[in-house]
């Protein structure tokens, strides 16, 4: 039995983006209750050479929209990456979820052998088939940035757990 490319992508991205939205809401409530400047949480890092929380959320959204868009053969929507508040990150997640809702199984299924070129025309150019792109590159990248966001918030005292990370499934 095989699983469709749509089923392996869209529902997974939607589940974790929705959970990420809920986790960010808890983080904002945490900051408010403890009188913490939200910018402190949004700019927190696990280590100085890592991206801050705000960038982790931006990149998670980037993978959630770009991977299925490429598999569907449609233009990848561009975002400005200028979010500076929890509300702006929530809007970015909502916009990404709307993009995912606009993609159909008919557009994505059958993309297993589609050639995806990463960093075209550069020394780091890499060609992958659609299935490898989704399962070995796109989803792991997305999970990394969602997980890092969770870890940053948990490390900073936001009361969240595995159930919050996973969301409804």
**Share of helical residues:** 55-70%
What is the mean pLDDT? 96
- Can you tell me the CATH architecture? Up-down Bundle
Shape: globular
How many DSSP H or I helices?
Answer: 7
CATH domain topology: Four Helix Bundle (Hemerythrin (Met), subunit A)
The radius of gyration computed from the alpha-carbon positions, rounded to a whole number of angstroms, is: 17 Å
Uncertain runs with pLDDT below 50, 5 residues or more? Answer: none
CATH class: Mainly Alpha
Q: For the report, how would you describe the main beta sheet?
A: 2 strands, antiparallel
End-to-end Cα distance? 21 Å
Main-sheet strand order equals 1-2
Strand tally is: 2
Strand % is under 5%
The secondary-structure element order is HHHHHEEHH
Notes on the structure:
- The chain has one domain (5-166): Four Helix Bundle (Hemerythrin (Met), subunit A) (Up-down Bundle).
- Helix content is 62%, strand content 5%.
- It contains seven helices and two strands, in the order αααααββαα.
- The chain has a two-stranded antiparallel ribbon.
- The chain is globular.
Architecture blueprint of SSEs:
Blueprint: H1 5-33, H2 38-42, H3 53-72, H4 86-101, H5 105-108, E1 115-118, E2 126-129, H6 130-155, H7 162-166
Antiparallel strand pairs: 1-2
Helix pairs in contact: 1-3, 1-4, 1-6, 3-4, 3-6
Main features:
two-stranded antiparallel ribbon, single chain, Four Helix Bundle (Hemerythrin (Met), subunit A)
